[in-house]
Amino acid sequence: MKFDQLDMTLLQAIADIKNLPQGALNIRRDGQAVLRQSSPNISITTNPENGGLIVDIKAGTKNETVHVPVILTQSGFKDKVYNKFIVGEDADVTIIAGCGIHNDSHADSSHDGIHEVIVKKGARMKYIEKHYGEGSGKGKRILNPTTIIRVESGATAEMEMSQIKGVDDTLRSTVAYIKEKGNLKVVERLLTHDSQIAESDIEVHIEGGGGVAQILSRSVAQDNSTQVFKAALYGENECSGHVECDAIIMDGAKIRAVPQLVAENAEAILTHEAAIGKIAGEQLIKLMSLGLSEQEAINTILEGFLR
Amino acid sequence: MLKLENITMAVNDNNGENREIIHGISMEFQPGKLYAVTGPNGGGKTSIAKLIMGIYKHNCGSIYLNDEDISDLNVSERARKGIAYAFQQPPRFKGLRVSDLLQIACPGIDNISLRASLRDVGLCPEDYLDRDVGPGLSGGEIKRVEIAQVLGRDASVSIFDEPEAGVDLWTIQKLIGIIISKFKGNDDLTAIIITHNENVLHICDEIIVVEDGLIKAKGTPEEIWPLIREDVECKMKEQCRGEIVYEI
Protein backbone atom coordinates (compact mmCIF):
# COMPACT_ATOMS: atom_id res chain seq x y z
CA MET A 1 0.00 0.00 0.00
CA LYS A 2 1.33 3.41 -0.94
CA PHE A 3 0.69 6.53 1.03
CA ASP A 4 1.07 9.98 -0.48
CA GLN A 5 2.52 13.06 1.16
CA LEU A 6 -0.87 14.16 2.48
CA ASP A 7 -1.47 10.79 4.14
CA MET A 8 1.96 10.83 5.73
CA THR A 9 1.49 14.38 7.04
CA LEU A 10 -1.70 13.33 8.78
CA LEU A 11 -0.22 10.06 10.07
CA GLN A 12 2.79 11.87 11.46
CA ALA A 13 0.62 14.50 13.18
CA ILE A 14 -1.68 12.02 14.90
CA ALA A 15 0.52 8.99 15.48
CA ASP A 16 4.12 10.16 15.00
CA ILE A 17 4.35 7.77 12.06
CA LYS A 18 7.21 8.70 9.71
CA ASN A 19 7.86 5.19 8.50
CA LEU A 20 5.32 2.45 8.81
CA PRO A 21 5.84 0.82 12.19
CA GLN A 22 6.51 -2.81 12.93
CA GLY A 23 3.96 -4.75 14.92
CA ALA A 24 0.20 -4.69 14.94
CA LEU A 25 -1.24 -1.95 12.77
CA ASN A 26 -4.45 -0.88 11.09
CA ILE A 27 -4.63 2.27 9.03
CA ARG A 28 -8.11 3.37 8.01
CA ARG A 29 -8.40 5.91 5.21
CA ASP A 30 -11.71 7.36 4.07
CA GLY A 31 -13.72 4.56 5.64
CA GLN A 32 -11.57 1.64 4.42
CA ALA A 33 -8.83 -0.34 6.11
CA VAL A 34 -5.93 0.28 3.72
CA LEU A 35 -3.24 -1.46 5.69
CA ARG A 36 -3.60 -4.09 8.35
CA GLN A 37 -1.11 -6.32 10.03
CA SER A 38 -1.39 -8.42 13.16
CA SER A 39 1.47 -9.57 15.35
CA PRO A 40 1.88 -12.94 17.05
CA ASN A 41 0.35 -11.52 20.24
CA ILE A 42 -2.06 -8.94 18.85
CA SER A 43 -4.71 -9.88 16.37
CA ILE A 44 -6.69 -7.32 14.41
CA THR A 45 -9.85 -8.59 12.78
CA THR A 46 -13.07 -7.17 11.38
CA ASN A 47 -16.09 -7.29 13.63
CA PRO A 48 -18.78 -9.00 11.49
CA GLU A 49 -21.52 -7.19 13.41
CA ASN A 50 -20.53 -3.65 12.58
CA GLY A 51 -17.50 -3.69 10.30
CA GLY A 52 -15.26 -2.15 12.95
CA LEU A 53 -12.11 -3.60 14.42
CA ILE A 54 -11.60 -6.14 17.12
CA VAL A 55 -8.11 -5.75 18.54
CA ASP A 56 -7.41 -8.72 20.74
CA ILE A 57 -4.24 -8.60 22.81
CA LYS A 58 -3.14 -11.92 24.29
CA ALA A 59 -2.78 -12.28 28.04
CA GLY A 60 0.77 -11.60 29.20
CA THR A 61 1.80 -9.62 26.11
CA LYS A 62 4.54 -7.21 27.18
CA ASN A 63 5.93 -3.99 25.73
CA GLU A 64 4.06 -4.11 22.44
CA THR A 65 2.38 -1.26 20.63
CA VAL A 66 -0.61 -1.35 18.34
CA HIS A 67 -1.33 1.54 15.96
CA VAL A 68 -4.89 2.16 14.73
CA PRO A 69 -4.88 5.65 13.17
CA VAL A 70 -7.70 6.97 10.99
CA ILE A 71 -7.25 9.56 8.25
CA LEU A 72 -9.83 11.36 6.14
CA THR A 73 -8.61 12.95 2.95
CA GLN A 74 -11.71 12.75 0.76
CA SER A 75 -13.61 16.02 0.77
CA GLY A 76 -16.91 16.00 2.62
CA PHE A 77 -16.46 12.40 3.80
CA LYS A 78 -18.45 11.21 6.81
CA ASP A 79 -16.99 8.24 8.63
CA LYS A 80 -18.24 6.21 11.57
CA VAL A 81 -16.47 3.26 13.11
CA TYR A 82 -16.91 0.96 16.11
CA ASN A 83 -13.69 -0.55 17.45
CA LYS A 84 -13.20 -2.91 20.33
CA PHE A 85 -9.93 -3.42 22.19
CA ILE A 86 -9.41 -6.29 24.60
CA VAL A 87 -6.21 -6.11 26.62
CA GLY A 88 -5.59 -9.59 28.03
CA GLU A 89 -4.76 -10.32 31.65
CA ASP A 90 -1.35 -9.13 32.84
CA ALA A 91 -0.51 -7.64 29.46
CA ASP A 92 1.44 -4.37 29.26
CA VAL A 93 0.79 -2.54 25.99
CA THR A 94 0.36 0.81 24.29
CA ILE A 95 -2.48 1.61 21.92
CA ILE A 96 -1.97 4.54 19.57
CA ALA A 97 -5.20 5.73 17.99
CA GLY A 98 -6.07 9.17 16.64
CA CYS A 99 -7.69 10.79 13.66
CA GLY A 100 -6.53 13.37 11.15
CA ILE A 101 -8.80 15.15 8.67
CA HIS A 102 -7.74 17.06 5.58
CA ASN A 103 -10.63 18.97 4.07
CA ASP A 104 -10.22 21.42 1.20
CA SER A 105 -13.90 21.46 0.27
CA HIS A 106 -16.95 23.42 1.37
CA ALA A 107 -18.68 20.28 2.63
CA ASP A 108 -18.13 19.08 6.18
CA SER A 109 -15.90 16.06 6.85
CA SER A 110 -16.49 14.10 10.01
CA HIS A 111 -15.31 11.06 11.89
CA ASP A 112 -17.23 9.45 14.72
CA GLY A 113 -15.00 6.89 16.38
CA ILE A 114 -16.60 4.71 19.01
CA HIS A 115 -14.06 2.74 21.00
CA GLU A 116 -14.76 0.17 23.65
CA VAL A 117 -11.70 -0.79 25.67
CA ILE A 118 -11.52 -3.63 28.17
CA VAL A 119 -8.40 -3.79 30.30
CA LYS A 120 -8.44 -7.19 31.90
CA LYS A 121 -7.31 -8.19 35.36
CA GLY A 122 -3.79 -7.10 36.24
CA ALA A 123 -3.09 -5.60 32.80
CA ARG A 124 -1.49 -2.24 32.09
CA MET A 125 -2.48 -0.17 29.11
CA LYS A 126 -1.52 3.22 27.79
CA TYR A 127 -3.91 4.67 25.24
CA ILE A 128 -2.81 7.67 23.17
CA GLU A 129 -5.27 9.45 20.90
CA LYS A 130 -4.51 12.62 18.96
CA HIS A 131 -6.91 14.60 16.82
CA TYR A 132 -5.87 17.00 14.11
CA GLY A 133 -7.47 18.88 11.25
CA GLU A 134 -6.16 20.83 8.28
CA GLY A 135 -7.20 22.04 4.84
CA SER A 136 -8.27 25.23 3.13
CA GLY A 137 -11.98 24.53 2.56
CA LYS A 138 -14.84 26.17 4.42
CA GLY A 139 -16.25 22.74 5.23
CA LYS A 140 -15.91 21.87 8.88
CA ARG A 141 -13.59 19.22 10.22
CA ILE A 142 -15.65 17.39 12.83
CA LEU A 143 -14.46 14.73 15.24
CA ASN A 144 -16.76 13.05 17.75
CA PRO A 145 -14.90 10.37 19.68
CA THR A 146 -16.71 8.15 22.14
CA THR A 147 -14.69 5.96 24.44
CA ILE A 148 -16.02 3.41 26.88
CA ILE A 149 -13.36 1.86 29.04
CA ARG A 150 -13.65 -0.91 31.59
CA VAL A 151 -10.72 -1.29 33.97
CA GLU A 152 -10.93 -4.66 35.63
CA SER A 153 -9.58 -5.56 39.06
CA GLY A 154 -5.95 -4.66 39.62
CA ALA A 155 -5.60 -3.26 36.11
CA THR A 156 -4.07 0.11 35.27
CA ALA A 157 -5.01 2.31 32.35
CA GLU A 158 -3.67 5.66 31.29
CA MET A 159 -5.40 7.59 28.54
CA GLU A 160 -3.81 10.59 26.85
CA MET A 161 -6.25 12.32 24.56
CA SER A 162 -5.20 15.44 22.69
CA GLN A 163 -6.76 17.75 20.17
CA ILE A 164 -3.76 19.38 18.54
CA LYS A 165 -5.42 21.93 16.27
CA GLY A 166 -7.67 22.40 13.26
CA VAL A 167 -10.75 20.58 14.58
CA ASP A 168 -13.79 22.82 14.10
CA ASP A 169 -16.31 20.91 16.09
CA THR A 170 -15.91 18.13 18.60
CA LEU A 171 -18.03 16.34 21.13
CA ARG A 172 -15.86 14.01 23.14
CA SER A 173 -17.53 11.45 25.34
CA THR A 174 -15.57 9.24 27.70
CA VAL A 175 -17.18 6.84 30.14
CA ALA A 176 -15.13 4.63 32.45
CA TYR A 177 -15.88 1.86 34.93
CA ILE A 178 -13.23 0.85 37.43
CA LYS A 179 -13.30 -2.39 39.40
CA GLU A 180 -11.46 -3.40 42.63
CA LYS A 181 -8.03 -1.81 42.91
CA GLY A 182 -8.22 -0.68 39.32
CA ASN A 183 -6.45 2.53 38.43
CA LEU A 184 -7.36 4.96 35.68
CA LYS A 185 -5.72 8.20 34.69
CA VAL A 186 -7.29 10.31 31.96
CA VAL A 187 -5.24 13.21 30.63
CA GLU A 188 -6.95 15.45 28.10
CA ARG A 189 -5.25 18.27 26.22
CA LEU A 190 -7.30 20.52 24.05
CA LEU A 191 -6.48 23.46 21.83
CA THR A 192 -9.26 25.40 20.10
CA HIS A 193 -8.90 28.46 17.91
CA ASP A 194 -10.90 30.61 15.46
CA SER A 195 -14.59 29.84 16.03
CA GLN A 196 -14.14 26.21 16.99
CA ILE A 197 -16.37 24.48 19.50
CA ALA A 198 -15.22 21.67 21.75
CA GLU A 199 -17.14 19.84 24.40
CA SER A 200 -15.67 17.10 26.49
CA ASP A 201 -17.85 14.99 28.70
CA ILE A 202 -16.03 12.57 30.97
CA GLU A 203 -17.80 10.26 33.41
CA VAL A 204 -15.87 7.89 35.63
CA HIS A 205 -17.52 5.33 37.90
CA ILE A 206 -15.25 3.86 40.55
CA GLU A 207 -17.20 0.72 41.32
CA GLY A 208 -14.63 -1.40 43.11
CA GLY A 209 -13.03 -0.97 46.52
CA GLY A 210 -9.53 0.54 46.36
CA GLY A 211 -10.18 1.97 42.93
CA VAL A 212 -8.32 5.11 41.92
CA ALA A 213 -9.18 7.65 39.21
CA GLN A 214 -7.59 10.88 38.06
CA ILE A 215 -9.02 13.14 35.40
CA LEU A 216 -6.65 15.88 34.32
CA SER A 217 -7.59 18.42 31.70
CA ARG A 218 -5.33 21.10 30.23
CA SER A 219 -6.86 23.30 27.61
CA VAL A 220 -6.19 26.48 25.70
CA ALA A 221 -9.00 28.44 24.05
CA GLN A 222 -7.91 31.09 21.54
CA ASP A 223 -9.68 33.58 19.28
CA ASN A 224 -13.47 33.17 19.49
CA SER A 225 -13.52 29.48 20.27
CA THR A 226 -15.71 27.85 22.91
CA GLN A 227 -14.92 25.00 25.24
CA VAL A 228 -17.06 23.08 27.67
CA PHE A 229 -15.44 20.60 30.00
CA LYS A 230 -17.62 18.35 32.12
CA ALA A 231 -16.07 15.76 34.39
CA ALA A 232 -18.15 13.66 36.72
CA LEU A 233 -16.53 11.34 39.20
CA TYR A 234 -18.69 8.73 40.93
CA GLY A 235 -17.26 7.11 44.03
CA GLU A 236 -19.39 4.04 44.50
CA ASN A 237 -17.11 2.24 46.95
CA GLU A 238 -14.11 2.89 49.15
CA CYS A 239 -11.98 4.71 46.62
CA SER A 240 -10.14 7.89 45.74
CA GLY A 241 -10.53 10.20 42.79
CA HIS A 242 -9.40 13.61 41.65
CA VAL A 243 -10.55 15.94 38.88
CA GLU A 244 -8.34 18.79 37.74
CA CYS A 245 -9.23 21.27 35.05
CA ASP A 246 -6.69 23.89 34.12
CA ALA A 247 -7.41 26.21 31.23
CA ILE A 248 -5.82 29.21 29.56
CA ILE A 249 -8.29 31.59 28.01
CA MET A 250 -7.25 34.09 25.32
CA ASP A 251 -8.75 36.71 23.05
CA GLY A 252 -12.57 36.42 22.84
CA ALA A 253 -12.79 32.75 23.81
CA LYS A 254 -15.22 31.20 26.27
CA ILE A 255 -14.61 28.29 28.62
CA ARG A 256 -16.98 26.51 30.93
CA ALA A 257 -15.65 23.94 33.37
CA VAL A 258 -18.09 21.76 35.29
CA PRO A 259 -16.42 19.32 37.65
CA GLN A 260 -18.86 17.08 39.48
CA LEU A 261 -18.20 14.79 42.41
CA VAL A 262 -20.71 12.15 43.44
CA ALA A 263 -19.88 10.12 46.55
CA GLU A 264 -22.07 7.12 47.13
CA ASN A 265 -19.94 5.60 49.85
CA ALA A 266 -18.69 7.19 53.09
CA GLU A 267 -15.16 5.90 52.36
CA ALA A 268 -14.95 7.60 48.97
CA ILE A 269 -12.43 10.46 48.87
CA LEU A 270 -13.09 12.71 45.90
CA THR A 271 -11.49 16.07 45.17
CA HIS A 272 -11.49 18.60 42.38
CA GLU A 273 -9.63 21.73 41.27
CA ALA A 274 -10.53 24.02 38.43
CA ALA A 275 -8.68 27.10 37.26
CA ILE A 276 -9.30 29.26 34.22
CA GLY A 277 -7.18 32.30 33.50
CA LYS A 278 -5.12 34.14 30.96
CA ILE A 279 -1.37 33.71 30.60
CA ALA A 280 0.30 35.28 33.63
CA GLY A 281 2.09 38.51 32.77
CA GLU A 282 5.05 37.56 34.94
CA GLN A 283 5.55 34.36 32.91
CA LEU A 284 5.67 36.38 29.69
CA ILE A 285 8.10 38.90 31.15
CA LYS A 286 10.32 36.13 32.47
CA LEU A 287 10.64 34.46 29.07
CA MET A 288 11.10 37.81 27.35
CA SER A 289 13.94 38.55 29.77
CA LEU A 290 15.64 35.48 28.28
CA GLY A 291 15.45 37.04 24.81
CA LEU A 292 12.17 35.65 23.45
CA SER A 293 9.77 38.01 21.70
CA GLU A 294 6.30 38.32 23.22
CA GLN A 295 4.81 35.96 20.62
CA GLU A 296 7.63 33.44 21.10
CA ALA A 297 7.04 33.60 24.84
CA ILE A 298 3.30 32.97 24.39
CA ASN A 299 3.99 30.01 22.08
CA THR A 300 6.51 28.55 24.52
CA ILE A 301 4.08 28.81 27.44
CA LEU A 302 1.22 27.23 25.46
CA GLU A 303 3.43 24.48 24.08
CA GLY A 304 4.60 23.58 27.58
CA PHE A 305 1.11 23.81 29.03
CA LEU A 306 -0.31 21.39 26.46
CA ARG A 307 2.68 19.06 26.44
CA MET B 1 29.14 50.35 30.45
CA LEU B 2 25.60 50.70 31.79
CA LYS B 3 24.53 54.22 32.68
CA LEU B 4 21.33 55.52 34.27
CA GLU B 5 20.87 59.26 33.88
CA ASN B 6 18.35 61.24 35.95
CA ILE B 7 15.88 58.38 36.12
CA THR B 8 12.48 59.10 37.61
CA MET B 9 9.69 56.60 37.97
CA ALA B 10 6.16 56.98 39.27
CA VAL B 11 3.45 54.42 39.99
CA ASN B 12 -0.25 54.58 40.73
CA ASP B 13 -0.81 53.91 44.41
CA ASN B 14 -3.83 52.24 45.96
CA ASN B 15 -5.80 55.49 45.80
CA GLY B 16 -5.14 55.81 42.08
CA GLU B 17 -2.79 58.72 42.62
CA ASN B 18 0.52 59.06 40.84
CA ARG B 19 3.35 58.60 43.32
CA GLU B 20 7.02 59.03 42.45
CA ILE B 21 9.11 56.18 43.85
CA ILE B 22 12.45 56.79 42.07
CA HIS B 23 13.61 60.36 42.22
CA GLY B 24 16.01 61.37 39.46
CA ILE B 25 18.81 58.92 40.19
CA SER B 26 22.02 58.59 38.14
CA MET B 27 24.33 55.58 38.27
CA GLU B 28 27.20 54.07 36.26
CA PHE B 29 28.16 50.42 36.17
CA GLN B 30 31.59 49.72 34.68
CA PRO B 31 32.59 46.45 32.97
CA GLY B 32 34.84 44.25 35.07
CA LYS B 33 33.26 45.37 38.29
CA LEU B 34 30.96 43.74 40.80
CA TYR B 35 28.31 46.01 42.33
CA ALA B 36 26.06 45.50 45.33
CA VAL B 37 22.83 47.44 45.66
CA THR B 38 21.48 47.41 49.19
CA GLY B 39 19.09 49.32 51.41
CA PRO B 40 15.81 48.93 53.23
CA ASN B 41 12.84 47.04 51.84
CA GLY B 42 10.67 49.22 49.65
CA GLY B 43 13.54 51.61 49.00
CA GLY B 44 13.61 51.06 45.23
CA LYS B 45 16.32 48.42 44.63
CA THR B 46 14.16 45.97 42.68
CA SER B 47 12.48 48.86 40.84
CA ILE B 48 15.90 50.01 39.60
CA ALA B 49 16.73 46.46 38.45
CA LYS B 50 13.41 46.20 36.61
CA LEU B 51 13.95 49.62 35.03
CA ILE B 52 17.29 48.42 33.69
CA MET B 53 15.70 45.22 32.33
CA GLY B 54 12.84 47.21 30.79
CA ILE B 55 10.15 45.56 32.90
CA TYR B 56 9.27 48.93 34.39
CA LYS B 57 9.23 52.14 32.35
CA HIS B 58 10.78 55.31 33.65
CA ASN B 59 9.04 58.68 33.32
CA CYS B 60 12.12 60.84 32.88
CA GLY B 61 15.78 60.28 32.13
CA SER B 62 17.70 57.83 29.94
CA ILE B 63 19.37 54.46 30.19
CA TYR B 64 22.50 53.79 28.11
CA LEU B 65 24.25 50.51 27.39
CA ASN B 66 27.68 51.04 25.84
CA ASP B 67 26.66 54.60 24.89
CA GLU B 68 23.49 53.41 23.13
CA ASP B 69 20.23 54.80 24.48
CA ILE B 70 18.15 51.71 25.28
CA SER B 71 15.34 53.61 27.01
CA ASP B 72 12.78 52.71 24.34
CA LEU B 73 13.77 49.05 23.98
CA ASN B 74 11.45 46.41 25.42
CA VAL B 75 12.46 43.52 27.68
CA SER B 76 13.30 41.11 24.84
CA GLU B 77 15.38 43.68 23.01
CA ARG B 78 17.35 44.56 26.11
CA ALA B 79 17.93 40.86 26.79
CA ARG B 80 19.31 40.46 23.28
CA LYS B 81 21.53 43.51 23.83
CA GLY B 82 23.14 41.71 26.75
CA ILE B 83 21.19 42.41 29.93
CA ALA B 84 20.13 39.49 32.11
CA TYR B 85 18.01 39.55 35.25
CA ALA B 86 17.52 36.87 37.88
CA PHE B 87 14.12 37.54 39.43
CA GLN B 88 13.73 37.80 43.18
CA GLN B 89 10.60 35.63 42.93
CA PRO B 90 10.75 33.74 39.64
CA PRO B 91 7.41 32.61 38.21
CA ARG B 92 6.43 28.97 37.92
CA PHE B 93 5.38 27.33 34.68
CA LYS B 94 3.13 24.34 34.12
CA GLY B 95 4.70 22.05 31.56
CA LEU B 96 8.02 23.86 31.10
CA ARG B 97 10.97 21.86 32.34
CA VAL B 98 14.21 23.03 33.92
CA SER B 99 16.05 21.98 30.77
CA ASP B 100 13.63 24.01 28.61
CA LEU B 101 14.33 27.22 30.52
CA LEU B 102 18.09 26.65 30.47
CA GLN B 103 17.99 26.04 26.72
CA ILE B 104 15.96 29.19 26.13
CA ALA B 105 18.34 31.16 28.34
CA CYS B 106 21.43 29.76 26.67
CA PRO B 107 20.59 28.92 23.03
CA GLY B 108 22.81 26.19 21.62
CA ILE B 109 24.12 25.14 25.02
CA ASP B 110 25.63 21.65 24.91
CA ASN B 111 24.59 18.89 27.24
CA ILE B 112 27.77 19.03 29.33
CA SER B 113 27.46 22.78 29.94
CA LEU B 114 23.75 22.39 30.67
CA ARG B 115 24.48 19.90 33.41
CA ALA B 116 27.40 21.93 34.75
CA SER B 117 25.17 25.01 35.05
CA LEU B 118 22.89 23.12 37.43
CA ARG B 119 25.74 21.65 39.45
CA ASP B 120 27.10 25.19 39.89
CA VAL B 121 23.97 26.13 41.81
CA GLY B 122 23.95 22.93 43.84
CA LEU B 123 21.36 20.98 41.88
CA CYS B 124 21.95 17.46 40.61
CA PRO B 125 21.19 17.50 36.85
CA GLU B 126 19.89 13.94 36.83
CA ASP B 127 17.25 14.92 39.39
CA TYR B 128 16.24 18.28 37.96
CA LEU B 129 16.65 18.59 34.18
CA ASP B 130 13.35 16.89 33.36
CA ARG B 131 11.33 18.39 36.17
CA ASP B 132 8.66 21.01 35.61
CA VAL B 133 9.45 24.51 36.85
CA GLY B 134 6.11 24.25 38.60
CA PRO B 135 4.55 23.57 41.97
CA GLY B 136 6.74 20.48 42.43
CA LEU B 137 9.86 22.60 43.00
CA SER B 138 10.45 24.49 46.24
CA GLY B 139 11.06 28.24 46.25
CA GLY B 140 14.78 27.66 46.88
CA GLU B 141 15.05 25.18 44.00
CA ILE B 142 13.30 27.56 41.59
CA LYS B 143 15.62 30.34 42.74
CA ARG B 144 18.68 28.25 41.97
CA VAL B 145 17.35 27.35 38.53
CA GLU B 146 16.82 31.09 37.98
CA ILE B 147 20.39 31.93 38.94
CA ALA B 148 21.70 29.13 36.69
CA GLN B 149 19.89 30.70 33.72
CA VAL B 150 21.49 34.11 34.25
CA LEU B 151 24.95 32.68 34.93
CA GLY B 152 24.67 30.67 31.72
CA ARG B 153 23.67 33.62 29.56
CA ASP B 154 27.11 35.28 29.74
CA ALA B 155 25.34 38.62 29.43
CA SER B 156 27.42 41.78 29.51
CA VAL B 157 25.29 43.00 32.45
CA SER B 158 23.91 40.41 34.88
CA ILE B 159 21.55 41.48 37.65
CA PHE B 160 20.82 39.16 40.56
CA ASP B 161 17.88 40.21 42.73
CA GLU B 162 18.47 38.92 46.25
CA PRO B 163 20.09 35.64 45.19
CA GLU B 164 20.43 34.65 48.82
CA ALA B 165 16.69 34.72 49.53
CA GLY B 166 15.36 31.21 50.05
CA VAL B 167 18.73 29.61 49.31
CA ASP B 168 20.58 27.59 51.94
CA LEU B 169 23.86 28.83 53.44
CA TRP B 170 25.99 26.19 51.74
CA THR B 171 24.64 27.19 48.34
CA ILE B 172 25.12 30.89 49.07
CA GLN B 173 28.79 30.26 49.82
CA LYS B 174 29.08 28.27 46.61
CA LEU B 175 27.31 31.00 44.65
CA ILE B 176 29.65 33.62 46.04
CA GLY B 177 32.58 31.53 44.80
CA ILE B 178 31.02 31.22 41.34
CA ILE B 179 30.23 34.94 41.15
CA ILE B 180 33.80 35.82 42.13
CA SER B 181 35.33 33.46 39.57
CA LYS B 182 32.96 34.52 36.78
CA PHE B 183 32.83 38.28 37.29
CA LYS B 184 35.79 39.46 39.36
CA GLY B 185 38.39 40.94 37.07
CA ASN B 186 36.49 39.97 33.92
CA ASP B 187 36.73 43.16 31.87
CA ASP B 188 33.80 42.19 29.63
CA LEU B 189 31.20 41.54 32.30
CA THR B 190 29.34 43.58 34.87
CA ALA B 191 27.41 42.05 37.76
CA ILE B 192 24.87 43.90 39.90
CA ILE B 193 23.69 42.07 43.00
CA ILE B 194 20.77 43.32 45.04
CA THR B 195 21.52 41.92 48.43
CA HIS B 196 21.25 42.15 52.19
CA ASN B 197 23.92 39.49 52.72
CA GLU B 198 27.05 40.70 54.48
CA ASN B 199 29.28 38.11 52.75
CA VAL B 200 28.05 39.17 49.33
CA LEU B 201 28.46 42.87 50.19
CA HIS B 202 32.11 42.29 51.11
CA ILE B 203 33.10 40.64 47.80
CA CYS B 204 31.79 43.55 45.70
CA ASP B 205 33.92 46.37 44.30
CA GLU B 206 31.29 48.96 45.05
CA ILE B 207 28.22 49.18 47.25
CA ILE B 208 25.31 51.46 46.40
CA VAL B 209 22.80 52.18 49.13
CA VAL B 210 19.30 52.95 47.86
CA GLU B 211 16.65 54.31 50.17
CA ASP B 212 13.37 56.08 49.49
CA GLY B 213 14.08 56.06 45.76
CA LEU B 214 17.37 57.89 46.14
CA ILE B 215 21.02 56.89 46.22
CA LYS B 216 21.94 57.45 49.80
CA ALA B 217 25.59 56.40 49.59
CA LYS B 218 28.09 54.62 47.37
CA GLY B 219 31.67 53.49 47.75
CA THR B 220 33.87 50.52 48.50
CA PRO B 221 32.79 47.94 51.09
CA GLU B 222 35.34 49.40 53.50
CA GLU B 223 33.76 52.83 53.11
CA ILE B 224 30.12 51.79 53.10
CA TRP B 225 29.84 48.92 55.58
CA PRO B 226 30.34 51.11 58.68
CA LEU B 227 27.65 53.48 57.37
CA ILE B 228 25.19 50.68 56.76
CA ARG B 229 25.83 49.18 60.16
CA GLU B 230 25.05 52.48 61.89
CA ASP B 231 21.93 52.85 59.78
CA VAL B 232 20.79 49.36 60.66
CA GLU B 233 21.18 50.08 64.35
CA CYS B 234 19.20 53.30 63.92
CA LYS B 235 16.44 51.54 62.00
CA MET B 236 16.33 48.78 64.58
CA LYS B 237 15.53 51.41 67.22
CA GLU B 238 12.77 52.81 65.00
CA GLN B 239 11.42 49.31 64.58
CA CYS B 240 11.27 48.97 68.35
CA ARG B 241 9.11 52.10 68.40
CA GLY B 242 6.84 50.46 65.80
CA GLU B 243 8.09 52.57 62.93
CA ILE B 244 9.93 51.67 59.74
CA VAL B 245 11.19 48.11 59.43
CA TYR B 246 14.70 47.83 58.04
CA GLU B 247 15.68 44.23 57.29
CA ILE B 248 19.26 43.27 56.54
Q: Proportion of β residues of chain A?
A: over 45%
Tally of DSSP β-strands of chain A: 22
* Structural class label of chain A: mainly beta
Rg of Cα set of chain B:
18 Å
Structural class determined from secondary elements of chain B: alpha/beta
Number of strands of chain B: 10
CATH topology of the domain at 2-92 and 155-172 and 183-240 in chain B: Rossmann fold
CATH architecture of the domain at 2-92 and 155-172 and 183-240 in chain B: 3-Layer(aba) Sandwich
Enumerate the strands of the largest sheet of chain B in spatial order, edge to edge or round the barrel: 6-7-8-3-9-10
Helix content of chain B: 25-40%
- Mean pLDDT of chain A equals 95
**Cα-to-Cα separation, first versus last residue of chain B:** 29 Å
What's the SSE pattern of chain B? EEEHEEHEHHHHEHEHEEH
**Strand fraction of chain B:** 25-35%
- What's the CATH H-level superfamily name of the domain at 2-92 and 155-172 and 183-240 in chain B? P-loop containing nucleotide triphosphate hydrolases
List its traits:
heterodimer; A: mainly beta; 12-stranded mixed beta sheet; 10-stranded mixed beta sheet; 3 helices; 22 strands; 10% helix; globular; B: 248 residues; Rossmann fold; 6-stranded mixed beta sheet; 38% helix
Describe, in plain words, how this protein is organized in 3D.
The complex is a heterodimer of chains A (307) and B (248). Chain A is mainly beta and 307 residues long. Chain A has one domain (5-279). Chain A has three helices and 22 strands. In chain A, strands 1, 2, 5, 6, 8, 9, 11, 14, 16, 18, 20 and 22 form a twelve-stranded mixed sheet that branches. In chain A, strands 3, 4, 7, 10, 12, 13, 15, 17, 19 and 21 form a ten-stranded mixed sheet that branches. In chain A, strand 3 (42-46) and strand 4 (53-57) form a beta hairpin. In chain A, helix 2 crosses helix 3 (294-305). The longest helix of chain A has 12 residues, at 294-305. Chain A is globular, with a radius of gyration of 20 Å. In chain A, 46% of the residues are buried. The model of chain A has no long low-confidence stretch (mean pLDDT 95). By secondary structure, chain B is of the alpha/beta class. Chain B has a domain at 2-92 and 155-172 and 183-240: P-loop containing nucleotide triphosphate hydrolases (Rossmann fold, 3-Layer(aba) Sandwich), CATH 3.40.50. Chain B is built from nine helices and ten strands. A six-stranded mixed sheet of chain B has the order 6-7-8-3-9-10, sandwiched between helices. In chain B, strands 2-1-4-5 form a four-stranded antiparallel sheet, with helices on one face. In chain B, strand 1 (2-12) and strand 2 (18-29) form a beta hairpin. The A-B interface holds A 218, 246, 280, 282-283, 285-294, 297, 300-301, 303-307 and B 53, 55, 74-76, 79-80, 84-85, 87, 90-91, 93-97, 100-101, 104-105, 107, 149, 153.
